[in-house]
Amino acid sequence: MPKHIARLLLLLALFFAAALAAKWYFTAESFYQFGHYRGRSVVEIAAQEPVYQTARYCETCHEERHAQWSANNHKSVTCEICHGAAQGHPENGKLPIPADTRKLCTLCHERMPGRPATQPQVDLAQHASGQQCIVCHNPHAPKLAGVVAKVAGDAAAGARTHAAQCASCHGKDGISPNDTWPNLAGQHAAYLVGILAAYKSGAQTDVMMSPIAQTLNDAEIQNLATYYAGLRCEAAPRKARVGDVAAGKALSQNCAACHGDAGIGSNPAWPNIAGQAPEYLVNALKAFRAGLRKDPMMGGVVRGLSDTDIANLAAYFAAQKCQPVAKGKGTP
Fold it and tell me: Can you tell me the distance from the alpha carbon of 241 to that of 255, in angstroms, rounded to the nearest whole number?
């Protein structure tokens, strides 16, 4: 055997021996006791106590969120249940709520026999058309009423400054003379503020409404909303030229959670639609379906509706009697 081959084999043998010695020295006695991992590892991991920072830790940086959370019915749900463990949380970082809030929230709120009646439950097959929960709910204050800011405008100022400009489309008293435009009388002030703000910011676009809204400041928007919310909605129910009222009533059950059984919703964030012109309702629903009007909730709700379904829904809601928003329902 050539000498260089012998030296190479000797060197390899020495490396192999050193590796075996290192393995013997550094490998724990319990290694391979249960398969490929250490037998004591399970016990050691189980003995480690999880570190929970608690809400007091979160309050030091997130005082506003903490105050909102502690005053609402999620106060029994600790921060880390939704945000994950705060151990090692960076000083200036964020612990965002997981993107799939529907999956997270339904761990507690999916309808199941045996769950306490005090814990709100939903039927996933019928609720919100697959939309994420945070579309409608503020997770720190999940009651829908907690999402809406109160409107405190000056109705007289709204009537004096900009109402005349609105009257050409929406009518002198908020009852539109044109079936393609909505009535505003008796509408929720919070909804009116929200939609005008959306037109102003560009979140919603409309050839006529966007330029008008962009000329308004926040106070003027509040004043107009307060003015129209205070008007009496006395328009007679409309009879649609097409559409089946009975069929629309059956479909309307999917709308009731937001817009009420007869188109009069209790949540001021969403519009009353009872007594609106059927042509307007058809156009609005088709615009949501086509993505021309942007709303995560409505986009999901109307996605599966046919033109016939839309006509039936419009016929039903147009046939309902409109009414002014009751005091105590979110309007000034």
Answer: 22
Q: What is the DSSP string of 71-89?
A: TSTTTTS-HHHHH---TT-
CB neighbourhood size of 269 (10 A): 18
89-131 pLDDT, tens digit per residue, is 666 566 677 778 888 898 889 988 888 888 888 888 767 666 6
Q: Packing angle between helix 307-318 and helix 278-290, nearest 10 degrees?
A: 140
Q: pLDDT tens for residues 232-281?
A: 887 666 777 889 999 999 999 889 878 988 999 878 888 999 999 999 99
Helices (H), 95-240: 101-109, 155-161, 163-170, 189-201, 209-213, 218-229
Asked if 74 and 146 touch (Cβ cutoff 8 Å), the reply is: no
Q: How far apart are CA 241 and CA 94, in angstroms?
A: 54
End-to-end C-alpha distance for the chain, whole angstroms: 103
Instruction: Report the SS3 class of residue 37.
Output: strand
Measuring CA to CA, how many Å separate 252 from each of 263, 300, 305, 317?
9, 15, 12, 8
Domain ranges of the chain: 54-110+121-147, 155-318
CB atoms within 10 A of CB 290: 10
DSSP 3-state assignment of 10? helix
Q: What is the pLDDT of residues 309-324, one digit of tens each?
A: 999 999 999 999 887 5
Q: What long-range pairs does 203-206 form, CB within 8 A, spacing at least 24?
A: 203/294, 204/293, 204/294
Superfamily of domain 155-318 in the CATH hierarchy: Cytochrome c-like domain (1.10.760.10)
